[in-house]
Specification:
Oligomer: single chain
Number of strands: 10
CATH architecture of the largest domain: 3-Layer(aba) Sandwich
Distance between the termini: 37 Å
Largest sheet: 8 strands, mixed
Order of helices and strands: HHHEHEHEEHEEEEHEE
Length: 231
């Protein structure tokens, strides 16, 4: 396992807090990644299958956490086709525990710890990428880093799906209460909200084009985006 040189989430989000063995034994990692373990895990999987994910495709789960969605993907994809990356080493440890308990070790999931979105560590390009509840915790400069790395490691025909909390206008300085779910989001602190125009600007800088996906029924009102390599 590769330990990050520093924690990019420090001072931005509590997500970087490392869990201890007692936390992992008590399954606290399932709540730490946002809870709704069964609901959101299944939601991700069903969504990706509807988007065309097949067992022979390669999938990169950015911010995979303790594998809330990852377990579904690992069981479905051919061995070696699932890759996951997270900034929090303790969540990757929890992910390996979940894999063992689900008897999925033979699926050869590739899990790494990194806080710089260094996707080159996997040595491949991907048919699909997904990140759930990642942009919701990140400021613009780190999102742009993620998108730039994604554009360099996405196949020409590939798609990167990611969620965000939507604001009605750029530079929406007021708090928003997301419905459903009741999550309060902010312009300049975690959890963050962005307008689609701001997301489009970030995508353009990174060499990607983006479209909004119709409501995919996320229980906390996170909206889905689809990024592709520019034509």
């Amino acid at each position: 396992m590769v330990e990050p040189k520093h924690n990019a989430m420090k001072g931005i989000s509590p997500y970087g807090t490392e869990l201890n063995k007692e936390d992992l034994d008590s399954k606290r990692h399932r709540e730490f990644v946002g809870g709704l373990w069964e609901e959101v895990g299944q939601l991700q999987f069903d969504f990706m299958k509807k988007q065309g994910l097949l067992p022979n495709h390669s999938l990169f789960d950015i911010g995979c956490g303790s594998l809330r969605g990852g377990l579904h993907f690992i069981a479905y994809l051919e061995p070696g086709n699932y890759c996951g990356l997270d900034v929090n080493a303790s969540l990757i440890d929890a992910g390996f525990v979940e894999i063992e308990e689900a008897q999925l070790a033979d699926r050869k999931a590739n899990l790494l710890v990194d806080d710089q979105f260094r996707f080159e560590k996997f040595g491949r390009k991907f048919d699909y990428m997904i990140s759930i509840s990642v942009f919701t915790h990140l400021p613009m400069n780190i999102i742009i880093r993620c998108l730039t790395e994604a554009s360099n490691h996405l196949k020409q025909t590939g798609v990167y799906f990611s969620t965000f909390f939507e604001a009605p206008t750029p530079a929406h300085l007021n708090e928003l209460v997301q419905r459903p779910g009741g999550v309060t989001t902010y312009y300049d602190s975690d959890p963050f909200h962005y307008s689609f125009a701001e997301i489009s600007w970030m995508a353009d800088i990174a060499g990607l084009q983006v479209e909004a996906i119709a409501d995919w029924e996320h229980p906390r009102n996170q909206k889905m985006l689809a990024f592709r390599i520019k034509d």
